[in-house]
Amino acid sequence: MAWASTMFLLLKHLQHGILERSGKNTSLPQKNRVLNVSQTNNAVLKGRTRHVQKKPEKVNSLFLPSQPKPMDSIEFAWEPKRQAIRSMFQEAWSVYKKHAFGCDEVLPISMKCGNKFGNIGTTVIDSLDSLILFGLEDEFEQGVAWIAESYTLERSSLISVFETTIRNLGGLLSAYSLRPNHALLEAAEKTGEWLLNAYTTPSGLPAFAMGPGESPKDAKSTSLADAGTQLLEHSELSHITKQRVFKDSATRGFTVLLQELEKRIREGNTALLPVEIQMDGNSLSFGNSFSMGPRGDSFYEYLIKLWIYGGKSESMQRYRLLWEATMDAMIENLLVQDTGTGFVYLGDRKENAKSTDGQMHHLACFVPGMLALGAEGRKTEKYLQVAKDLAFTCWQMYQLQSTKLAADSVSFSSGRLKTLSSHHYLRPEVVESLFYLWRRTGDPMYREWAWEMAKAWNHSSRVETGGFTTLADPRSGSSSNQHSLSAFQCPEIHLVELEKNHLPTQSEIAIQ
Length: 512
What we know:
single chain; mainly alpha; three-stranded antiparallel beta sheet; 16 strands; disordered N terminus
């Protein structure tokens, strides 16, 4: 999920001690990191990790020379590493500001403006909290000034409700939690009011996309993630504006999904929701495919984060209980250990299939962090162990490529990890999970992994003209025709590298 969409929640976690490290260091010895898979009602998964020989690196002329960078020599001091990551972010921001300021993104190879989200200034808004965390106050003020003068949702004929919620509304709320500002609040309220139209569907589920000032478009189908990734942002917007309409509208849609999940549990079906949803007036029909990757992921993430956002109160227990039910079902039905490699992964699965499809999506790598965040009570050890095992697999998805950057999906067969969807999209899920695991366990291994990923981005996705690009194939390092610049991973790596107490204090941030 996009970084900005839950920054305001994350900051509250950290300030109030919710993510303090446990008193006991729960890290495992190297040899046991993959072997001790959590027990479920099924037979205990068994296997052993095999070390795969990596291919020599290939050089692409688009990228900077392959000789070691100054940051490669930084091995022990964390402060220089933090500064190196800050420099990466500064470079990415500078390229965007120079060539595409106000656009949704910059295309770093052609240095052109990209507007795939509807020409709504996504990178300006989604970077605000990161600019603050990196201490780039002048750049932050420039972003706020652009929002006050130029931000609008009226330039495009079709805008994704999901993307606008997590990136724009989430980004504005995150920035406002750090720097309360009238322009940010006004823009957040304007965005929320525009999004309200998405909930005028007969079923109450938000439409997939909308045009400016129009009724919802494409309201006949949606996905679990698109429909179930709204309530956190709208709840915060209602909180700071004192207007219940935002939370109430999103709650109506989210409740539709909760009721369907509870129905499945009562009827003895798998306690997961299929990713495909068809809407025909008031009637809904669900498909038969379960996934923690594309189209399914963030619904489950929002269950646990809404429980935490609500102070873990009795009134929010419904979210916690349903989250645990879905996690147990995930472990029983989607969690697999490949017998050849020993890697533990999450596959996709059809409702009545005997097994998963044998592939792991990069998007599913948010799960280790989610489990580390939600592991409490009698299931703490179980969830933390699965989190560690999955995090190791996600880390190996990077390490086993010649560029040290992961493909978007891989499969496990004949004792080997095989690349399926070869693109590398600069996604943040693995780094986010490393952040949560580092905070939860205190194991410095997760900081080291994040640092290695930063070096890989600097080495293999950095372009001569400045900034970072997606890769068409992380096996060779070739650039993508869909090249774009994302700075999501930089602030998350920065937080992994920070010491536990090196965070904004409550006196520095206005907690609403």
